[in-house]
Specification:
This protein is 55% helix and 8% strand. By secondary structure, it is mainly alpha-helical. It has two domains: 212 residues, HUPs (Rossmann fold); 81 residues, Orthogonal Bundle (Tyrosyl-Transfer RNA Synthetase), CATH 1.10.240.10. Helix 9 links the parallel strand 4 and strand 5. The chain is globular and about 70 Å long. The structure holds adenosine-5'-tetraphosphate. Adenosine-5'-tetraphosphate binds next to strand 1 and helix 1. The site of adenosine-5'-tetraphosphate has 21 residues, from strand 1 and helix 1.
């Protein structure tokens, strides 16, 4: 039986290397494997769980679709859509909230982090984020989810909800697992935490040009490079190491690990080289993006057809759930 795949990215801004390496690369791999039926959405409803600007949201919904297409998501192989255009997700999330306790949601590390980040915005929508994510996945009965490691607690919640729904109402939801990429956790350029859209100075955007990437990497904090010893587990050096490993896997031992261990690393030339190899991978995506930006009708059509296809599957699941719960 063909397995379904679902993933999404919030419409909070331009995509960065963390989104690309942790999520989009996994999406591409699964899209291009005929053993899977793939659905990729822009999680624009999830965007309103943290403070947002209306005009920015409207713009970013389209920007993320364009980023997806530029990176290689293909509407002939995948269903690409905006979450808000399939309102069944919200309906299913409400049904799921009836088998989810408030205490379970309050204990999630992702929830606590966001409350810390936006103390004046501790809303029901934020608390409900993982329930909506469970609905996003289970509405398509997807069993594989290409997302970064930071999303693992939410997948655990999704599995719990699937189990509870199946036990209490006899539904047939799968218990989805994460599809991990090599870049499942890209650290921040600031050397602390993960690369994140909402942390200024932490990220490289997929649309950054070579000079911008060089400037951003030049600011990554490092040590003197003369101490030697094992690569630190945290901090700016670790961030550089992780990026180097992903963009130059065959050379990182020789270029990074050995010079570091022997106290001979030269950060400036290393950072410049890292900027060049990073840009080399992003350049074709950026070129494709430029063309897509002018092809408004094509992008509009992707959005329209994606929603129609997604809605067909989603409404079937919601009807099944209504029936099983006595609402139909
Ligand atoms: N640093 C990261 N390393 C690996 N994967 C990452 N992802 C995000 N950051 C990293 C993955 O990208 C996908 C989309 O994430 P999202 O936009 O839905 O939400 P997010 O995690 O909130 O992304 P940001 O950049 O951190 O946005 P803000 O700052 O707005 O919260 C997910 O698969 C995620 O794992």
């Amino acid at each position: 039986m063909i397995k379904r795949v679902l993933s999404g990215i919030r419409a909070t801004g331009r995509l960065h290397l963390g989104n690309y390496l942790g999520a989009v690369k996994g999406m591409l791999e699964l899209q291009n494997d005929p053993g899977y039926e793939t659905l990729f959405m822009v999680a624009d409803i999830h965007t309103i769980t943290t403070p947002f600007n209306i005009d920015e949201l409207r713009k970013n919904r389209r920007e993320v679709i364009t980023d997806y297409l530029a990176a290689g998501l293909n509407p002939e192989k995948s269903i690409i859509f905006l979450q808000s255009e399939v309102s069944e997700h919200i309906e299913l999330a409400f049904y799921f909230s009836s088998v989810t306790t408030i205490a379970r949601m309050q204990h999630l590390p992702t929830y606590k982090d966001k409350v810390k980040q936006h103390p004046g915005h501790n809303t029901m929508a934020l608390l409900n984020y993982p329930v909506l994510m469970a609905a996003d996945i289970l509405i398509y009965k997807a069993s594989l989810v290409p997302v970064g490691i930071d999303q693992e607690p939410h997948l655990e919640v999704t599995r719990e909800i699937a189990r509870k729904m199946n036990q209490q109402y006899g539904t047939d939801f799968p218990e989805p697992v994460r599809f991990a990429t090599k870049g499942e956790y890209i650290p921040s350029l600031k050397g602390e935490g993960k690369m994140s859209k909402s942390v200024e100075g932490s990220y490289i955007n997929m649309t950054d040009d070579l000079d911008t990437i060089k400037i951003k990497l030049s600011k990554v904090p490092t040590d003197s490079g003369k101490e030697g010893g094992p690569i630190p587990k945290i901090g700016g050096v670790r961030s550089l190491y992780e990026l180097y490993k992903l963009f130059a896997p065959e050379k990182f031992d020789e270029d990074f690990t050995k010079p570091y261990e022997s106290g001979l690393i030269r950060y400036q030339s290393l950072k410049n080289h890292l900027a060049e190899i990073t840009y080399k991978e992003l350049k074709p995506i950026q070129e494709k993006r430029k063309k897509l930006e002018t092809d408004i009708a094509f992008v509009d059509n992707v959005i329209k057809e994606g929603a129609e296809k997604a809605r067909t599957i989603a409404s079937k699941t919601v009807n099944e759930v209504r029936q099983k719960m006595g609402l139909l």
